[in-house]
Amino acid sequence: MNPKITRFLENQALPTPYLVVDVDHVEYRYQQLKTQLPQASIYYAVKANPAMAILERLVSLGSSFDAASWEEVELCLQAGAPAGGISFGNTIKKASAIAQAYQAGVRLFAFDCLEELEKIADQAPNAQVYCRLMVENKGAEWPLSRKFGTTLDNAKTLMLKAKDLGLDPYGLSFHVGSQQTSIHAYEAAIAKTALLFTDLAHAGIDLRMVNLGGGFPIRYQEEVPEIDQFTSTIAQAMTQYFKNNIPHIIIEPGRFLVGEAGTICSEVVLTSQRGIPDGPKWVYLDIGRFGGLAETEGEAIKYQIETPYPEGDMVSAAIAGPTCDGADIMYEKTPYQLPIQLKSGDRVSLHSTGAYVSSYCATKFNGFKPLAEYYI
Amino acid sequence: MNPKITRFLENQALPTPYLVVDVDHVEYRYQQLKTQLPQASIYYAVKANPAMAILERLVSLGSSFDAASWEEVELCLQAGAPAGGISFGNTIKKASAIAQAYQAGVRLFAFDCLEELEKIADQAPNAQVYCRLMVENKGAEWPLSRKFGTTLDNAKTLMLKAKDLGLDPYGLSFHVGSQQTSIHAYEAAIAKTALLFTDLAHAGIDLRMVNLGGGFPIRYQEEVPEIDQFTSTIAQAMTQYFKNNIPHIIIEPGRFLVGEAGTICSEVVLTSQRGIPDGPKWVYLDIGRFGGLAETEGEAIKYQIETPYPEGDMVSAAIAGPTCDGADIMYEKTPYQLPIQLKSGDRVSLHSTGAYVSSYCATKFNGFKPLAEYYI
To answer: Which GO terms describe its molecular function (chains A, B) (predicted)?
Structure first.
């Protein structure tokens, strides 16, 4: 584990649960990505973790930002980001939010349907717009393909319409799904995008940007491909499909930049087999699905759990949160093995919890306070 | 709809989304339950909605309270509840939380395993304890049976042990699952409980209380049986299985008391078919699974949605929240029909949202503020 975080966790006086994030590690990941894919502009997906310490660090590195709401646009501005470096990437926006962002100087907006395009034309005249395509999400542990994106045919119609509405038809985007573990996921999507670039060029519209979305995976329980495998596949596909006319590339990493930078410190509230012969050892932590670990829904994201007992006998465990809610079970089918001695009062660490955790936390479910956060 | 709520919703100046709760309706439900099952003590399940206005009204009516955490115990005390009228009903408690509740005067604690019983014995000497049994949750739309409760055999061992540990082995509890629509759900559980009462009496332990948990359903899309059907089935089963030796009865309604008292006012952010032939009309609201509607997970709870267009053509709709999260879809499989004219900017009402909504809301996911709440 990260030595800065290890030292921080040694302070046993801090009440659990809490999240500690090493902001230097966020910088390390940012630089790594910048080095591997220098031709791309990095727009950090603020929703992954909107902590001011992270935003400020990324501003200092020259990052741009992908905002999901007017409130996230505001946060970026507060952190010192120039409005020109903010993309309003949610395809679902209130007219008032578009207007607020536009008045603050934001000029780049996503959409995936005519209704949204018309709202942007009304509220953000002359803005740059990009249309989100529906693409395959196979290989992603947290898919995004049902709710967002449109067909190639419709996207073509919409980009032509964008011009008619006085907007700047700037580019196309897609998202291969979050925690995407297949390095080939981007290729087909890039091919599809290139096809539409050509098609629209014939119709008199010269697009200039491809937004590859996010999706780069991080290490939870399982090893994942290194980032250079993704970036080289992407660079090759861009050259293959766009030839010597490669457009401006935007990427929107969230999980990849901040996930591995964070660790949650949690206390075991109770362990018991509850008198059920052949049942698992139930381990109830003081954080659960409603305290931030929302991505354990359907046991999708499998966090690595470190206990004070690295040696010794292990038993099959079911792992649940501290609330009275029957749905507050993180892992029951996933084969977790935990130490037989693990007991009430022990502290455990949940690794790679820097992204998509703190902001999901419920305000007060079962009376529990929101997750405490420390940025070091 | 409730006329008080209707009048409140007419104020179009309030920003959405918000929840409005008619506290008089909570009182109405409390009195109804009290009348139908006068032999039972009502312990309101605070987690359903911990708003001070609700707690204070229930205190004024003489209600007792079921708390899930030390923080919920504190809330009840702040609302004026006597400590003797509070049950610490979560079977998963930190030792420190037990100690805090005990010091504040709470004397009634739930458990379902030896490890928890020992914590209670250490932190709350002489307290009354009750053991939660595992029972069938068939018929419940929000089941609770995997995470909580123990076997009859183990419960017997534990109640004997409770006495050895200097605790008062007071009773037994179970939970037939939340939003339980079968009026027969309680019978088998009561029979099981009575069996253990007899068994323990032979072993020299006279239990004096049965906690029937919650579970009474409310009306969402579908009609549910009236409360008197549940209470009369319960009363009959208690007489049948306990004969002339009926113990003190505790019930823990949450949803039943506050669910129908609440309505959410939400704005349609976007509607679109996204160019997908034969696809549903996608309706994106400004509240979703992470803004409070957590019980739509797996499309379990199906809220009734009222639009400004009661007449006219309807189309199949998929209904989603406003975030960039692909999991933020409320209904895709459930056959919702919504008006063809429904569009961005329209206000809709989601009924029966007084329980298990506001407290589930995320602190800041995608930058959105927590749900505003009004108690009238």
So the answer is: ornithine decarboxylase activity
- Write the ipTM: 0.95
Contact A69 B271 (CB under 8 A): no
Full DSSP string of A77-141: HHTT--GGGEEE--S---HHHHHHHHHTT--EEEESSHHHHHHHHHHSTT-EEEEEBP---TTEE
- Cβ of B89 within 8 Å of Cβ of A324? The answer is yes
**For chain A, what is the mean pLDDT?**
96
Say how far apart CA B353 and CA B253 lie, in whole Å: 15
Let me know: does A274 contact B150? Beta carbons within 8 Å.
Answer: yes
Residue whose tokens read 């078919």: B273
Catalytic residues of B: 324
Confidence of residue B295 (pLDDT cuts 50, 70, 90): very high
Q: Where are the beta strands (DSSP E) in B186-296?
A: 209-211, 248-251, 262-272, 281-285
Comparing CB atoms, the residue among B45, B70, B269 nearest residue A94 is B269
Residue A299 has which token pair?
Answer: 């046991």
Supply the DSSP symbol for B370: P
Contact list in A for residue B327 (CB cut-off 8 A) is 142, 297
pLDDT of A331 above 90: yes
User: CA-to-CA distance for A68 and A72, rounded, in angstroms?
Assistant: 6
Compute CA A164 distance to the chain's CA centroid, rounded to the nearest angstrom.
34
Instruction: Give residue B12's pLDDT band: very low, low, confident or very high (50, 70, 90).
Output: confident
pLDDT band at residue A12 using 50, 70 and 90 as cut-offs: confident
Say whether A191 sits in a helix, a strand or coil: helix
* Omega within 30 of 0 (cis) for the link into A310: no
Distance from CA of B297 to the nearest CA of A (A): 9
How far is residue A253's CA from residue A89's CA, in Å, rounded to a whole number? Answer: 12
- Do residues B280 and B316 lie in contact, with contact meaning Cβ atoms separated by under 8 Å? yes
Residue B60, H or E segment: helix B52-60
* Domains (range + CATH), chain B: 23-257 (3.20.20.10), 260-375 (2.40.37.10)
| pLDDT, tens digit, 9 for 90 and up, residues A75-134 | 999 999 999 999 999 999 999 999 999 999 999 999 999 999 999 999 999 999 999 999
pLDDT band at A11 (very low <50, low <70, confident <90, very high): confident
User: Does the bond joining A17 to the residue before it have cis omega, within 30 degrees of 0?
Assistant: yes
Q: Which residue has the tokens 């596909």?
A: A237
B173-183 average pLDDT score: 93
- Chain A nearest CA to B285, separation (Å): 9
Q: Which two tokens stand for residue B248?
A: 């003190």
How many residues does this entry show for chain B?
Answer: 376
Of B154, B323, B370, the CB nearest to A275: B154
Q: Searching chain A, which residue's CA lies closest to the CA of residue B150?
A: A274
Maximum CA pair distance of chain A? 72
